[in-house]
Design brief:
A two-stranded antiparallel sheet has the order 1-2. Helix content is 63%, strand content 2%. By secondary structure, the protein is an all-alpha fold. A hairpin with a 5-residue loop joins strand 1 and strand 2. The protein is globular. The chain has 16 helices and two strands. The chain has a single domain (45-267, 287-478), classed as Up-down Bundle (Growth Hormone, Chain: A).
Length: 485
């Protein structure tokens, strides 16, 4: 691929050292600079198909744990059959996973300049592979509902922890390659949701076909349960995929383009004579004093506040209803099995999300304005009311005809919901770290990866708040205690 103008962060060319270097006061870590004097036009670093492909794979790995766990909800619910934990599992899982993701991502963001992104990426991927392998083994072992519930929640929390450090390192490197790499990474995140949802639909189809043959699934032996069989397959494949991603990451770090663009984030550890651990960046702009880095993070967060609020609210709305509320919507067509209906619902959202992220690769549909993106994000609130008009299951209410009495309209709304989720969130993340399209960064290359990681942190914050909001929405729907019903 030819050089792309989207590759916004480039190698810093060698230049003579100024005879009178400017000294920066410790009380003014980010003094104003004359961009015309300090910054020289730089040759763009090509973001070729290999780099885009690797970032696509890394994007898949970033959200693979969440998507595999959330899409495996039918399997988890089948293991919690006849347990009071069954009805509240989705909400408790969402809030525990996203809360852990939020707090660990806060630490990962604050310490992002103090570690090597390549080593952090590989270390996180290996641990995620181990955790996915444990979930694979869980399909072969019979556990009572209580311990199984605790195991899944704990596994999810630990995956969220390692996923936080993986997210930080991947988005930081992608942002330095520019919007092209960021878009590829975001498309990978959506693609993995489609993949695991497709597996779940096939599993549901197998289950329904067995029932139609007159052999109830509940009566089958555990080793023939199609939900467990499907869970074994895609948790196993997830483990293998994470290991393959380790190889892809290793390949990326061996490319000259990586060292030219992201070398500033790598850290060399050198042990001095006194035993102290000295660390320095490979090129200028790498490691800096923690206090200065904290000041920079706060400054960039304030600068990009509109983008950050916009991306956070996208996921507040999404997690408030998906999947705790949307999964409780039943088909209006009696010939459509509820299990198959719910599985198709996950796939429909995933397809919409993928299309939304993919179309961001076309310049004609890109929106860079922070205020327009915030308006689009806030407008997604309408979807909450649309879903509540569908055939939502209300345990304490008498059956009644919903305002939206069509499965086709429900899936159409759900697809638009997923598409807007992927489209608006991708634009927010791409814009926030773009030197070309975000004038708030004022051309400061050292702020690019900070802007990207802070935006990602706000995204996770939105997921956490949305998970909490799901309890409120569920309470309004069922007129009950959402923590026990």
């Amino acid at each position: 691929m030819s050089s792309s103008p989207d590759a916004l962060y480039h190698a810093i060319p060698q230049a003579p050292v100024a005879s009178n270097p400017i000294r920066i006061s410790e009380h003014d870590p980010d003094p104003p600079i004359d961009l015309d004097e300090e910054l020289e036009p730089l040759a763009p670093v090509p973001v070729d198909a290999r780099i885009r492909g690797i970032h696509f794979v890394l994007g898949c790995a970033v959200l693979l744990p969440w998507n595999a766990l959330i899409t495996a909800t039918p399997y988890f619910l089948s293991r919690l059959e006849d347990s009071p934990l069954r009805s509240t599992f989705s909400s408790y899982f969402s809030i525990s996973f996203t809360s852990a993701n939020f707090f660990f991502l806060a630490h990962a963001t604050a310490t992002s300049k103090q570690s090597s992104p390549s080593r952090q990426t590989i270390f996180s991927l290996l641990w995620l592979a181990v955790l996915c392998f444990l979930l694979t083994l869980s399909t072969l072992v019979q556990i009572s509902p209580g311990p199984f519930f605790a195991f899944v929640i704990l596994n999810g929390i630990v995956q969220a922890a390692f996923g936080s450090y993986l997210q930080t390192s991947v988005i930081a490197v992608a942002s330095l390659f520019g919007p092209t790499a960021v878009q590829a990474m975001l498309s990978g995140q959506a693609a993995v949701a489609v993949a695991v949802s497709t597996v779940q639909v096939l599993s549901a189809s197998a289950s329904v076909s067995v029932k139609r043959e007159g052999r109830p699934v509940e009566g089958l032996s555990r080793d023939k349960n199609p939900e467990e069989r499907a869970a074994f397959i895609f948790f196993g494949l997830s483990t293998v995929f994470l290991l393959v991603t380790v190889v892809a990451q290793w390949w990326l770090t061996r490319m000259p383009q990586y060292h030219a663009v992201a070398g500033s984030l790598e850290v060399i550890h050198k042990t001095g004579r006194d035993g102290a651990d000295e660390r320095r960046g490979l090129v200028s702009g790498g490691r800096s004093d923690p206090s200065i880095e904290k000041t920079r993070i706060i400054r960039v967060a304030k600068t990009n506040i509109i983008y950050e609020v916009a991306v956070a609210y996208v996921f507040i709305v999404t997690l408030a209803v998906f999947p705790p509320i949307t999964a409780s919507i039943q088909p209006t067509n009696p010939n459509l099995h509820p299990l198959l209906f719910t599985s198709i619902h996950f796939l429909t959202f995933g397809l919409g999300d993928f299309v939304g992220r993919y179309i961001c690769s076309f310049p004609q549909v890109l929106i860079w304005s922070a205020r327009k993106l915030l308006t689009l994000s806030l407008s997604r609130t309408l979807f909450v009311f649309l879903f509540l008009m569908c055939n939502v299951t209300k345990p304490s209410a008498e059956p009644s005809q919903p305002l939206i009495n069509s499965d086709f309209l429900f899936f159409l709304i759900l697809f638009a919901f997923g598409l807007s989720n992927g489209y608006v969130s991708s634009l927010c993340l791409m814009s926030a770290s773009s030197l070309e399209h975000n004038p708030r960064l004022k051309g400061k290359r050292e702020d690019v990866d900070v802007a990207a990681t802070v935006s990602q942190f706000c995204l996770i914050g939105g997921l956490m708040v949305g998970s909490m909001a799901s309890f409120v929405v569920r309470s309004a729907v069922c007129s009950c205690n959402p923590f026990t019903t």
